[in-house]
Amino acid sequence: MAKLELRFEGNFLADYPLTMQPLTMGRGQDCDVFIDNLAVSTHHARIVFEHDQYVLEDNKSLNGTFVNEIRVDRVALREGDKISIGKHSLVVRLHADSVQQSAHKKIVVPRLDGTVVMDSKQRKEMLQQQKPAAAHVVANRVTIAHLRVISGKTDQVDYLLTSQLTLIGKSSMANVKLGGWFKPKSAAVITRRRDSYYVGIGSRRVNVKVNGAVISSQKALGDGDVIEVAGVKFSFSLPKLPA
Which end of the chain is more exposed for a tag (fewer CB within 10 A), N or C? Predict the structure, then answer.
């Protein structure tokens, strides 16, 4: 199946399958691919399936959407294309017969380093200011899932999954930090979508299990599921909304 590989600073974060349904990308809570970067517009871009090929469309975003470092309005995607949105990138993985070889419609503008992208310090300061409000909005819109450590070493025992994307690993940007010398920087990733929470593989060298079975792609989580990754077991709980 065709898919996108979400990356940050070269590190693999998650896979997103491409289907015949439009796939939205941006900083909005309702986006299929949530990108946590203040340089990203709320509804930044989308991918649609047209005439047997996947087409990327920029949604008049402030900082632009780039394919292979060239700014685009609308473009047919090819195998291996690198989509850059803010400080994140999405690598396109297609079957050989999924897309015709079509010329890109290109608008040449300055490279990504010429766009207005906030530095890390500015981003951290603004995120700190937004945290209380964001948590309030999320809490009022959806039921918040909970992750509890059953066995293994992490930086804490309980986690509320209030973010759109929760990274499990030893990386400095991980939300759930694994303890131990040889733990992977990116072990697994949990994403919150409109219908449910999903767990995905953080590194191809690390097995992720749900209820004892190894997963090969993103899997929807249910209340009481047990996630096992890099020697750590977690219990996932998702309370039901009151009637």
Answer: C
- Contact call for residues 228 and 152 (beta carbons, < 8 A): no
- 172 backbone dihedrals φ, ψ, rounded to 5°: -65, -20
Per-residue pLDDT of the chain (243 residues; tens, 9 = 90+): 799 999 987 788 888 989 888 999 998 888 989 887 888 999 999 999 988 889 999 999 988 899 998 888 899 999 999 999 988 999 999 863 433 333 333 333 333 333 344 444 544 454 454 444 333 333 334 467 899 999 999 999 999 887 778 899 998 888 899 988 889 888 999 988 777 899 988 887 899 999 999 998 889 999 999 999 999 999 999 876 444
Copy the structure tokens of residue 178: 């694994």
Pull the structure tokens for residue 8.
Answer: 């940050």
Site of tokens 């060239």: 70
Structure tokens at 202: 């953080």
CA 30, CA 141: separation in Å to the nearest integer?
Answer: 11
Which two tokens mark 207?
């097995």
The DSSP symbol for 241 reads P
